[in-house]
Every structure is written in structure tokens, then in C-alpha cells.
Fold these 4 entries.
Entry 1:
Amino acid sequence: MATAGTSASSSALTAEEKKNERLQRLRELQLKRNEARKLNHGEVVEEDKRNKEPANIEAKRKRLDWEEQEAKKKKECKEKGLDYDRMKLLEVQADEAERTRNRKKKANPLTGFSTYEDMTARQNTRLTKLIKPDMKEYAEKKEKMGDAFYADVDTLGLEEMHKDTEEGIDKMCDDLEKQIEKRAKYTRRRTHDDDADIDYINTRNAKFNKKLERFYGKYTTEIKQNLERGTAL
């Protein structure tokens, strides 16, 4: 009888342990479910946030990071008394520099003069790429001037409201000096050579003489030299 009672008690304890084990597993599953629910909710919030952001937000972030690094390097070079542009070029490999130069050529090709409209458009494209507006100053002026910030046909005293900064004037002068220096490298093609011998009486005769020289010059060179020396027969 004692053995039967002990066996029954062991069976009861085993059932209780199994019950507790099941409850423990159930609690663990509930905790995992809650954790998964929180993670899913966080992912949904982040995805919704990404969808609401502009399409080029990542590019803007990379651009801002790059500008921050560039400003830091410029400051370091200035403190050390180094030329930033020169130090930057030392870090550029030859093949990369060649690719950059080719990209610039394709973006703004030097097609030569075609029309004044094309020349003006190319100049405008080049100048607008150099513009780096100060958005803080822009917002302050806009708030200060109100409706007068956007001038129309009835706006008076525009020169008093919009005053050029010293930095802007210096930048314009530097650009004009660069244009003058660039133009000085090019000369107008001359229609005739001032040092050449004049063997014609008018433009038509000059063209005829050039044609003769092109076809018979190699045969008459010696005769011309003899005539100039006075040794011709």
C-alpha cells in the first residue's frame, strides 16, 4: 500500500512540473511575440518616415557630409599655411583626374562660337554653377523686406534695398579678370600675313597667285630666287 501511495504522489508531482513547464514556455512565447510586435512597429514607423522624406534626401546627406569634410580640410590647410587646391590634387590619381576632365567636357563642351545665344547660355551655365547662396542671409532679408523682397514694375528704390556685399563685388572683379586673361590668349585670325611679300595688286590677284603657288611653286622656286638675287639669265 505504501508503494502505491508513493507512486501516485510522484505521478502528481510530474504532472505539476509539466504544467509549470508549459506555462513557462507560454510566457516565453508571449514575451517573444510582444518583442516581435515592438520591432515590427518600429520598422513600420521608420519605413513611413523614409517614404515621407524627399527622394534625394540620401544624396543631400552625402553632399552635406562631403562639404563638412571639405570645410574641415580647408581650415586645416589654412592653419598650416598650405594651398588647399594643391594638396587636394596630390590625392587625386591620374586616371580619376582624366575621368573628371572628360565628364566636365561632356557636361559643358567647348563647341566654339556658333551663335550669341549659345554663347550666352554656356556662360550662364558656368556662372550659375559657381553660385553658392547664403540661405540664412536670404531668409533674413526676406523677413525684413516683406513683400518688397520680390520686386515688380511698381517697386522703387531697389538699389537701396538690395546692396551688394564686398565679397560679391570682389568675386565679380575676379571673374572679370579671369575672362580678360582668357581672352588675351586668343587672337583674331589675320586674313593676310604682314611679313609676306606683296606680289599682287588686289584680292582676286592674290587668290590667283596662291593657286599658282600651290600647283607650280616647287618648279618656280629656283627661278624666283635667281630673280631676287639678280643672277637670272
Entry 2:
Amino acid sequence: MKGRAFAGGALLTAALLFGFSPASMAYEKAFYTQETKVKLATKTSLQVQLNGLFELENLSTREKTLLLPESTLTITAGSGSSKITAGTDSYSAANGFRVSELTNLPEKIVKFTSPTTVRSAADDKAASVASVKKIEAAEYTGEATVSGVKWYNVKLANGLQGWVSSKTAAVQSSPTALSLFKYGSLQYRGGFETKADGSLRNVLGLEEYLKGVVPNEMPASWHMEALKAQAIVARSYAVNTMNLTNTPSSQAYNGYTKEHSRSNKAVDETAGVMVKHNGKPIQSFFYSTSGGQTANAWDVWGSSKTTFPYLKSVEDPYETSSHSNWTDQFASGTILQKFGYNTANTVLYDLKANPKGENGEIGSVTAVTSAGTKTVSGNESVIRKLFPVDRYYGMLRSNWFTLNPVKSFTVQGSGNTVQQQFSVKGASIMGADGKPVSVQNSTVQIQTVSGPVSKEADPATIAVNGKGWGHRIGMSQYGANGFANKGSSAEDIVKHYFPGTVVGK
């Protein structure tokens, strides 16, 4: 019968068919008891793909919009605002946006094939309630057929309820898979925030965050008690850090994509457990390898012994790591450059490492050169960066080392003086015609009793013999796995590396 309306097999009342009202949403935004924010990037332009149903909130106006699953968002920053664009649709906010994962999803949602007017009744001439964009979705609550046209009753994210025509709308089931978003090559749990400074931060619960940390900080194949120890110290570190990032300078975090069932189990089985001192979670630092003895924080960073008594040196007897003992070689030109000298006309005469602290970690390095003597002092990071090694983040593996500089050239100067040098690059030497020439090539020909040989003009003969990888303060990851393989529990491992602490919820 023309004009009769049905929804779910039941006749819609006139009040529903021709009326509208604000209504509460069936879905809810995810709530995190320990909300964690992790900076993923700071860029003027980036893309995020939604794999699920998310709510967009303008942090300036608090206006809310339901975003269509599988949407690709282009996020740009500039002129004091953040902008989100999807196709021809866009939104701007001075304070940025929050895109939230949802729970208790409705069974069905309505999507739009073009910008659509939501009307107060199932009638093209009815009053406009709101306008929706193609990128948006709405909660489906029922449908009716009027004059041969199907209409859908919808609820918008702002709570308004009304009708949309099937001419520009269609019904689909809500996604049932875990809601994730993709940035770069990785997928992440939770939601995210964007700001006018171009920052993108993942927003999620602490335990879900840790599932993206543990297998990236420690191989998931390692002993379960070591993985649990890693989860405990990573949890304590996170609650003490105000600006988490996804890089090793904070905690390595690669989201849902890099999760592993074994490390997830370690997180779940230690949920809420932290390492504490005086009843509060501690600054629980960790790193790869200690070299057999961890460091005192006050020797390496200058930290207060009374404020951080648990960051003290302890024996680390069970490490099995290729980084426990190592050697790296450097040319004199590399060292001169890191000390700020002009390598074209400066000669390095000597290099000295000056130990400090209980174990002999290096607190300063002195370079003696033709341009004078310079000593560089500082914490472990400053010292390590004086010796650049590309494969180890551009610096030495630790500041626990000794130097063995070998001067491989014997140079005869004027007046038959003889001098030992690291390099002859840039030096003035006697040529075949008896005239002085400057060595500019990377190699030099040297006459020996066996004939001429080619040799690097500035060879890497400054050997650095070191132990450990990282700052060596707190828990050694290789050491923790060693303890676990010897039968220690996660709690005992953590308490060993942070003496005087307790482990619990």
C-alpha cells in the first residue's frame, strides 16, 4: 500500500516517521584507565588509513563526526591549525583533532554516496536537521519506504536523529574486526590525536601500548621470564615518561603490526605490575648489554645518588652477547672532525680517554693537536658521539672503553727529526724531484726495501676497546635473559638490576 512504512517488520508510528529528536548513541568511545600517548611523527603532511569505525572530534569546537570505515585521511599542519582531508571533504581545527576507536558498535551503519541532507521526516521537503559529508557515517536505527523510496532513520555522532534517502545513502554492517589505524607501514591499536604543530600521537591504553613495545625491545623468542621482566620495567618507564615516542630514545614501539603472541602473554600475565621504590613506580631504565657490570647513574649521567639509589652498579654475570666485548677502529680525521677541528690543516698528535666513576667509564676525552689541546667532557651520550659508528645510531656502543691509538707513520722532518704520526694526509713530504709536495690523495706510495707499497694516508688505527651496548644503567636485556635461563623469575631479575626496590601492583 502506497505510503505505508515498515522498519524491522513493524509499522513505524507517525511520530517516528515524521519527527526527530536528539538521541544518545549506541556506540561508546573507548575508555582507557591508564591512557598513554605516543608520538609517531611530526610532519606538515601525512596520511592515515582507518580500518574500523572511528569518531572524529574537533578539539576546538568539540563537534563530533562518525568516520566511514576504510577511510584514508590526509593530515596537514600549518597556519596555526590542523586539517584533515578525505577526498573532497575536509575539516580544520586550531586545537587539532582526536580520532577515537569505538566500542559497542551498532549492528548497522549508513554510508553516503554524496553530501546528504538529514531531514526531520522521510520526505524530500522536510526540514533539514543536519548535513553530512561523503566521508561520514551514521548509526542505522530503522528504515521506511515512502512513495516507493526507501528512507533510513539515522543517529549522528552529535546525537541528532533524522532521515536520509536511499538515493544518496546505503546500509552496511558495522565492521567486526579489531579497530586499527595505519600510518606508514604499521597498524596501531587505539586512536590518535593531531595538532597544529604537525604532531601525530597514538592514544591507547597502557597495556595495549606495551604489547607494541616488548617484542621490539626484546626478541619474543627469549625466555618467558625475561619477557615478563621487560614488560614490568617498560611499564614502569612509561608511567614516568611524559613524552613517549616510537623510537629507541624512548621505547621502541611498532604498534599492533609487530606484536607477538609470546610477548603479549608476558604483558597480560604481568598486567599492572611495576617496579617501585618508596611506593612509587621508578625510572626503570634498560638497554642491550652491560659488558658484565652495570653502571652507576651518578657516574654516567651525573644523577643524584640519593634520588636514584636503585640505579646503582651491580654484577651482570650471565650475559651472552656479541656486544659484551668489542673493538671499533677510527681514523684521526674522523676524531678531529668530531672535536671541531679543520681536518685539512690540523694534525692529531695524541688522544687520551679519561676514566671516572666506580667501573672506569669514560668521563672525558682529550685530543692533543697541532692546533692546541681540547678536552670534551659530558655524560655517556656526549662521549659516545665523539666516536661515530653508523650501525649503532651514529655513536660508540658505550662509554666503558679504553683507547689503543697506533701511530702507523714515521715521518722524517727538517733537521733529520723523526716524528710518529697517525696520518700523513695534508702533510708536506719530499717528492721524487726533491721538492716538497702536499699529500692530498686518500692513499700514499711508500718506498720500502721490498719496493713501493700503497697505504691509506689516514688509516683507521685508533682502536677503541669497549664493553656493553647502551647507557648500562638499570636492566641489561641480554643479562635478564641470562638470569631467566639460569632459573630466575621475572621479579627476581628486576629486583637484581634495581636493588632496594619491590615488584608488584
Entry 3:
Amino acid sequence: MKKPRSRLVVAALSIAAVLGSLVTAHAAGADSGAANGSGARAATRGGVLANDFTAVDRTTAWNLTNTLDLKFPTYHPEGLAVVGDRMFLSSTQIIEPTKMYPTPQDGYDRTPGKGIGHLFVIDRQGKLLKDIVLGEGDMYHPGGIDFDGRNIWVPLAQYRPGSSAIMYRVDATTLQAHKEFEVHDHIGGIVYDRTTGHLVGNNWGSRRFYEWTAQGRTVATWDNPNHIVDFQDCQYVPDARMLCSGLTTFGQNPAAGGTSASYELGGLALIDLRSHDILHEIPFQKWSAAGHVVTRNPLKVAADGHHLTLWAAPDNGEDVKGTQVFTFEATV
């Protein structure tokens, strides 16, 4: 039986509304490269975040514009995604710490330990909306995460190098988690390449990168060209680039406390996903209440044409002020 025209009109309007909300959510996410509406329109043309970040140098002034206290157990935060009016924060809850073996056993340098992997869904006021528990067996360590416009991609690995990991896809609207495939290495961060539909991940210490299809077939591997910092959290940047943040911890000289004291060097790097070259990199020396460099773990950046917004959550839940999400802004 032919449907009345009024029903067809209503259905068309409903579909348009859904598509419009998806486009709005995509544009509002930090991983799209836009901090607000006007930037979102520019970001759809590609290159806004890449252009703005390339203009950043060591003299750029980053101003702290907001500090958000998270009032729930956050454990050890790992990755961050900012999507519209929500934030997604991955975190590792340690139940039993790993222990180093006297000599390697079965190819591992330490015990697997025990823990729980979390993906927290948080509103912009810091309220916990949902705790999505991920992982299985010895794989409980989530890493850096990425938003592809519809889904949050989360790697869940064993908490030891040269181990294994599961790749999860979490629908950012329904919050349903889907196990996609497993990898035979510790994967500490993930990026969704929107030009190919492939995933790019980095292993322990980010010394090696992998590229997979969405079904888990390995397309390429390459060594990290950056030897300054170990990347912890990365994000896709239009077109075919990724922005990675991280740190390296150095021992101090004897006058400053020797190897028992440490210094965290933070930094960010823009990397070409085709050539694998580093296109631009900067040090980042802002500090948290616990004395950690801001690029220590979860971090995302958005751009709005000569204006950058950076969100970071470097501290653990048990640190002096707990986990705080810092917002820094810079004009370039």
C-alpha cells in the first residue's frame, strides 16, 4: 500500500535531523580540528589544525583558561577525546602491579599483573555519565584514543611490552562497545585515518607504528622517527596526518639529585601518515599540580583558524589534587 505523502515528509525530515546531528557532533569534536562552530566549518575543508599547529613554536604563549576537577575515581588516565559536550577518558585501574622477572620468561620481562580498563564518559562540568569497562584476561591497559566522527577507538593491551592488545570501537552516541580485532603487540595508542579507513597504532614506548585495515589486516609497519619523546596520545589531523603528544623522563645530574630525581620533557609532533615524516614538533613545558608535564598522558588539540585549544589530564586519581582536566589556549 502506498504511504501517505505526509508520512514520507516526516520520515525525510527525521532522517535529515539525524544526519544533521551527526555532522554537528563530528564538527564539534576536538579530533575534527575545530574548537567551535566557525572552526568546524573551516575544518571540513581540512588543514586548519595542521596549519595552526605548524605556526606554534617555543615562544608561543599557552594560557591556562580552565581547570576542571574530576570528582570520581579516575585511577591512571591514558587517553582523551573531546566530542561535543562530552569528554571520553580512558584509564587503567591497577589491582595487582606487574613485577619484573629476574630473567625474561616466555618472551616477557614482567608478570602480567591484574587490572580493569575503563572508558569514562564525562560531561563538560566533570560529571561522570557512564563507566564503560573494557578488556579481557591479561588485557586491561587502555591507551591513547581517537574519535572518527562516530566512534571512539580504544586499544586494550597487556601492561607489558611485546604482548598483545584488543582494538575496541565504542559508538559515541549509543556507548555500545564492539571488539574489532586483536594484535600481537602492546598497543599504547590509536588513530583512525579518515582518508583510508585504516587504523594506526603505536607500541610500548611508541618505538614502532602499525597500520591496519578496520578488519585487523596489517598494511604497514615502521619505526618511530622521533627519539625525543615517547608518544602517549595521538589524534587524526586532516588531511592524512596525526598529532601526537608525550614525554620522556630523564634522570638529573648529581647536583640536582642524581638518578633518584627525574625531569619530564614534554612535547608534541605532527606526523605525515603517508611519508611517516615529522612535519613539525615543539616542546611543551606546562606543569600540573602533581608536578607532571601536561603532555604526560591524555591530551587533545583543536583549532579555529589562528586559535588553538588544548585539553590535558596528566595526573592520576591519587595525586595531590586528583585528576584535573586543564584547558590551555594559544593564538598563532
Entry 4:
Amino acid sequence: MPSAFLPDRAFIRISGPDAEPFLQNLITTDLGALQPGVALPGALLTPQGKILFDFLIWRDADDLVIDTRADQQEALIRRLLMYKLRAPVLIEAFGENGATVTWGADTVDAAGVSDHRFALAGVEVRRNAGRLGETGPAGAYDALRILSGVIESGNDYVLQDAFPHDVLLDKSGGVSFKKGCYVGQEVVSRMHHRSTARRRAVIVTADGPLPPTGSDVTADGKVIGTLGTVAGQRGLAILRIDKAGEAMARGVAILAGQTPITVTLPAWTALTFPSSAEES
């Protein structure tokens, strides 16, 4: 059963009688859809609809647990406390930093919560707070993310520089369009109902090694996106899928740096590259 320890993760516990309604009015995830034993993705947005913090969230008995980047833990706690006011809610860091993830055929019976993002791609991944036993290299998890089309802030995108649609939260169960208001909801809802999202996460493949994370993705000499996590000949990128679709329709090479690449949308999203006809 493959596994990896991710030292850059940290955890926040939200408890108290108003914990769920408090978070429901702040974050993009619909907590009413949160099933026991399952971790859903989510985000806390700026009022302008961009991702301020990204995370996973799950239930632990009557409490809610947020799994976020370790370097964002304190800032996220401060932001939540700013909104708490006098609500009977306790927000606190807990446990040691780091998460253990396991995957593979035997993972269904393993401990931890099921990561819904990977389940959409047909892969069972379990997450546990802390280090559990001997694990494999963290790079194996990045390779799995690439194959599954799972995007995370840091290597894949910069916080406060992406909308939820850019990183597929609207497809991965990380955004609700029915639950009512939350911070940034108006902008995100408008993008969704007007179908104006054009930046999307894609899976990148090349015949040779890809250039480093942060390299420009170009078509016909124009920048259409940025390369994210890289593992050998495969990687993730966020790019303008309308521009990529136009380039593919015209037979124009798409490049990461100077390396020709093929870009595909994760199958579980059911998204397609717009054609010129769809753009007109």
C-alpha cells in the first residue's frame, strides 16, 4: 500500500455548538453535504472571490477539522477568529504538523478519511493527521496528484491569484452554488452562471523532462498559463483553455518553456476545450 508523509500540512479544529453554521456562512464548501469519513476540498475567499486559503475539511464526531498548509495555519486561524465575534465557537491548532496519505488497492480498509478529490478520479486516498509508520517519498504523492488532476496551492498556484473555478473547486465538491451566502459568493456565482471561467487546471505531458514549476506555458508566442507541479515528463498547469483549444484546433504547438507539451483536462471534470465556434 503506497504511502507518503507530507510535512507541510497542519490542522485546525473548530468546535462548539455553532461551529457548523459559523463555517457554513464563511467557506465555499457546503457542510450539509459533508459525509462522515470523507474530506471535501474548500476555500475561504476574498470579497472579490479569489482564494485566500485552500484546505480540506472533514467531520470528527461533533467537531470539524481543517487540513491546510502549515505555513498558512496561523493566518487562517487569525482570519477565522476575526469573523467569530461572540459566537460560541472554539478555533484552535491541534496535533503535530504533517499528514500521512495512503493509496492503492488495500486503502479502502485503511485508517483515515477518504479524500474526495481523488475519489472523483477513481483513486482511493486516505488522509491521517501526523506520521503513521514508515512511508514512501513525498514525490510519489505529487505524481499521483498529477495523474489525478488534483490541484493545491503552493506549487500549482499562488493564493489570492486564483478563483475557485481556476483550480476546479466547482467540479471537485469544493464550491456550493445552492447553500446561500459566504465570503466572495456573489463573484463566484456570477462566473458560474455566466459560464465565464476560462482559466482551468490541466494535466501536462511531454516526450522529455518538463521545465521547472513556474515556467510559462505559451501558444503562438503568447503566454496562456503557468506550469505547476512537475514530476518528470508530467505536470499540472493552470491556463486559458479557450486559447489552448484554439491552438490545438489550428495545429499550433503549446510549449512549457521551450518544451512541446500535450494538455488534457481531467476526465472527471467533464470539461472540454472550447472551439472557435463556441468562443464566437
